[in-house]
Amino acid sequence: MSLQELHERLLSWASAPPRDQELLLAKREHFERYGEPHEEDRSYEVRVNGMLDAYLYEYRPAGGFATTVERFVEAEGPSLTPAEITACRDLARNVHGLFEVRKIKDGRVRLRDVFTGKDVEVTERRHVAGLDKEDLLEARLLPYEGAFYFSSAYLYHPREARKAILTEVKRMKKATPKGVDPDVKPFLARLSRMALKMERYRNVRLESIYDFSPESRTWTPRPPPPPKQG
Prior knowledge:
Layout: H1 3-14, H2 19-34, H3 44-57, H4 68-76, H5 82-91, E1 95-105, E2 108-113, E3 119-123, E4 136-144, E5 147-150, E6 155-157, H6 162-175, H7 184-200, H8 206-209
Parallel strand pairs: 3-5
Antiparallel strand pairs: 1-2, 1-4, 2-3, 4-5, 4-6
Helix pairs in contact: 2-3
């Protein structure tokens, strides 16, 4: 079973009743943090894929300790081969973060986690449109059969925002007590909202959007109100 086939089987199980209600809740919570995309947004598909990734690999129901992929292994274990079970457990150790492109060559992309400084080689046989050295992107890296692969939810940030983003990363690392990891997830969500605003408001200066000053207030897209009950 290929990585794509395994992902599709996992998603099919995770979106079937009664788990479809958990998916709806996870979707609402994710878009409240990351910004809700509209179908006309250029990054719509990427952002929906990002929400699905978060549901599969991070989301835990209220009071639960296992992620969706971990519950899938527990529920479907008897119908999975030992290799498929191993692959799912590997997927549970996926890496989600903000990365800098260090090198692109021969079907591989070398990334550096901007918070940990660790490099990781990602297998990518397709040409990633627009990807270049020193680009910054939010990505989820999926381990499979001894290699890392991109999920379909990588989100670019403008090259012009690189300096401001890395300066804020440096500030966060310096402000974090020794031995404690910076709180990366809220920062990724904030960057996502900034990128969405940049996409929608082309007439607004980039410096006004990627603004990390203490007094800045980042615009947050909100989901539409629930339909009125008749």
